[in-house]
Design a protein that fits this description.
mainly alpha; 78 residues; rod-shaped
Amino acid sequence: MHAIQATLRRLAFALTLTLAVAAFMPGCGGIHGGSTAETDVHATTVGQELLDLEKARQAGVISDKDYEKQKKKILERK
């Protein structure tokens, strides 16, 4: 019985120590939220999309037909 109690004490100590260490390691899943990932989101407005589309048409990157098709899609999303 004494051996079981000693084993349980060691186990409780090890668990406490593990949790204490994990609490100070936020990048490794600690209590401060775990690892974080940053995302860089660039939202474009409808106006900006239309300007970019017009620039592509003027530069000859897209045809007039493709310009009209894409313009229609942009305006329909709004």
